[in-house]
Amino acid sequence: MKIAILSQDSSLYSTRRLRDAGEKRGHEIKVVNYLRCYMNITSHKPSVVYGGKELENFDAIIPRIGASRTFYGCAVVRQFEVMGVFSANESQAISRSRDKLRCVQILAREGIGLPVTGFAHDTEDIDGLIETVGGAPLVIKLLEGTQGIGVVLAETYQAAKSVIQAFRGLNANILVQEFIREAGGADIRCFVIGNKVVAAMKRQGAEGEFRSNLHRGGKAEKIKLTPEERSTAIRSAKAMGLRIAGVDLLRSNHGPVVMEVNSSPGLEGIEKATNIDIADKIIEFIEKNVESGNNRDRIQF
């Protein structure tokens, strides 16, 4: 097969692993900086142009779209879909998962466990918003934040009010969520491919840090999931329409709750923590879907 990896940087661990895994399985792999692509949008012969040449005869693409580049990245993915190319994750699902508010609303509709979450526009409604999630301590999240950036733990009512006022003063959209104290600064990353959780790791935040992101000094170890956690991860990915996803869970007193569903989950931390060749499993998944003709004739935009 001929597979394009849509990535801004060919030296990134996840990009390198996917390229190597694809080549090892005998495929032709091309890393494409999607920001350098431009598109010919026509009903006669739609195309994607990169480096002055049309990207033709690709069987599949693997989107590795940066959070800050979602709009343009999804436009490129969508163009490949118009051309009949199989995408490991479809553009609509990527866009849906990147909108934190839309994500929690969809998960709530599906009855999936979530922290109590509030959203408001006017600062005059702060008191009611804080009460909605059970008061302080609580977590305040920027809708556009990634890798733990823009996530604040407000330990008191006054601190929560001040942070919310500051963010809204900058016209930043935020979510307010209950603080799951019993999680102890740890979360679980479940890596979902298709209808299976192929790997899972526990991420423990650094001393004095409630965020468990590995980019912020957290540590990771392999973990065994409960049946409920496994089911929650699979249902969450399916609800978002993602074929490949990283689902982040917290262990709460009332069962697993979902914090985030990531459409471009990194491979480095979880491969090293679990010793599972996830890149190979992704390529194998793509092979099976392309061979079975799992390409939609019409993509829902």
From TrEMBL:
Mg(2+) 1 binds at D248, E260. GO terms for biological process: SOS response; translation. One of its GO terms (molecular function) is ATP binding. Mn(2+) 1 binds at D248, E260. Mg(2+) 2 binds at E260, N262. InterPro entries: ATP-grasp, ATP-grasp_RimK-type, ATP_grasp_subdomain_1, RimK, Rimk_N, Rp_bS6_RimK/Lys_biosynth_LsyX. Binds 2 magnesium or manganese ions per subunit. Mn(2+) 2 binds at E260, N262. Its cofactor is Mn(2+); Mg(2+). Its EC number is 6.3.2.-. It comes from the Bacteria. Residues 104-287 form the ATP-grasp domain. One of its GO terms (cellular component) is ribosome. It is an enzyme of class 6 (ligase). Keywords: ATP-binding, Ligase, Magnesium, Manganese, Metal-binding, Nucleotide-binding, Protein biosynthesis, Ribonucleoprotein, Ribosomal protein. ATP binds at K141, E178, F179, D187, R211, S212, N213. In the C-terminal section; belongs to the RimK family. PANTHER family: RIBOSOMAL PROTEIN BS6--L-GLUTAMATE LIGASE (PTHR21621:SF7), RIBOSOMAL PROTEIN S6 MODIFICATION PROTEIN (PTHR21621). This is Probable alpha-L-glutamate ligase. It comes from Cyanobacterium aponinum 0216. The gene is rimK.
